[in-house]
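Regression test attached.
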Amino acid sequence: MTETLRLATPEDDTAARVALRESPLAIRGLTVAYDQKPAVFSIDATVTPGSMTAIIGPNGAGKSTLLKAALGIIKPLSGVISVFGQPMSEMRHRTAYVPQRASVDWDFPTRVIDVVLMGLYRQLGLLSRVRAKHRTRAMECLSRVGMEDFADRQIGQLSGGQQQRVFLARALAQDADLYLLDEPFAGVDAATETAIIEVLKSLKAEGRTVVAVHHDLSTVSEYFDNVLILNVRKVSEGPVETAFTRTALDAAYGGRLATAQIDRLSVAG
Amino acid sequence: MLWQALTFQLGYNATLVTLGAALLGVAAGVTGTFLFLRKRALVSDAISHATLPGVGLAFIAMVAMGMDGRSLPGLLIGSAISAALGLLAVQWLSTRTRLSEDAAIGAVLSVFFGFGIVLLTVIQTMTAGRQAGLESFLLGSTAGMLFSDAMLIAVGGAVALALVMALRRPMTLAAFDPEFAAASGINLDRTDLAMMGLVMGVTVIGLKIVGLILIVALLIIPPVTARFWSDRSDRVVVIAGLLGGLSGWAGAAISASAPALPTGPIIVLVAFGLFALSLLFAPARGGVAALIRHRRFQSGVHVRQGLLSLAQGQPIYEPLTLRLLQKRGLVRADGVATDDGRAHASRAIRDEKRWEVARAIPAFELATARYDGMTRIEDVLTVDQIGEIDALIRPPRKADV
């Protein structure tokens, strides 16, 4: 070894602290394991304020796990999660979450408007009544996703895309600064995909931050500013132009993507 | 007799029992709804069976301390403690080991119940003359119910209802979407424990009237029945409470009006009767309504297909289609369309074409979601909108102008 290891300087340290404090979501050394098998291992990631970030990677890469650990839904083995410089438990009011559509029972006895009102439960607390202003707010969120005419429907009567839009409306009702979405485009129709991406872009325009687990590599550069490519470990992180590369995709997906496919997708070789 | 029992005119004891059973039914129906929505109804079976060793141990402890072993509050405290242990055992086995919840329930239920039966047998040989009929906790017994017993049920039920009221939002959210609940800061473990604690409370106060084996029915049947009547969880809760109260009231009254009818089992049978009625006759989700809907839809589709065939000059092969068209006077017995039939057919094909165009227009998404092959487009779109569609079907040709 002729090269000496470059150790961090005090300036580096200050820059790191500032980044950590300002980032809507900063993850340090996150490891989550199921039965002693790491689902994500030692992940560091720093989400840029006001950006749209896609978390991508092959099946079983730990994308959803990363999101759930960040939200505190599953307990990590190690690691620190910082939301606007604070622990997640202090910042729940600034965070909204859209779970995978398949994670709930759509035969549950509830109407579309009731689901959106669930986004206001934190604000409502345990006992206060749902008032007209809360209903108005819920209706506003529904019309933002084009679902206001469905407010009184039982949720089981909706198509998959409509269900996804209702979930997004519930997150909008949370009026957060950081939006975390788990596969929002999975199995939805084209009209819904357009509606959702419009809403996400408008959130970004309002200065809010969007992080989404995404599976469709062909739309990454069209929809998102940044990527976080995972395969249990972090493969690549940064702006789409520099991080969504052939090398990174090759490393993450191994032989699972054909070379021609990667050539077409990636921004730079 | 039955009328007198229903209107609380059948003597002091019968009145206490009827009131107590009605209150218990309300509390059990309301509490059980959250268990049902969380899809953990069977946990209540483990909880209720786990009360038995507590009853036995409390009796032994009270006798050992020189008290009356039959004191109801003492027995109920004992049952609550062992039910809590049983509940924690299920929780621990299903979260900390590889056992699934149903296996954990089976294990806990049988072991606690077996231990309880051993204790009851020991007690019978222990203090002669004071066995106190602890077996009555198995199936309930309302003979000799005291005012204080009824008060215990009333107060316990009221506390359970107040707690359900306070915890309805976290419990509903945990049942519908646990991940979102956790992400919005609801502690799932604590919410579940609170829900189970409520179920345990209802079980314990229900031991006297319906007994530990049948209390499960009162926790589960009313919510399942209520689900037939509403698509809104808040209403399902209220309806389940009403149905539970109705079952308790009517069941206790029926058993009081005849000498040989046991209270708990009759309450459960009344609850089942309401369930069976709902299963068949509920307006939206009931079996009869579903059958009628299906038949109506089927004949509607047949008529529509038949009319479209007529309009396109194709033969109709299906006997049912022909029969339905004949019955409506649209075709003659030999399968040839009547004048009326031809008019209907041309309207049907125009309607079909309009639907086809409308369904391709995103702005009509809500309306066209109602397409089922028989709803007329006039019923879902305005005249102007249909005009728009017709313009697309026949674009004005410039040459004609």
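Expected vs. actual: identical. Chain B is about 75% helix and 0% strand.
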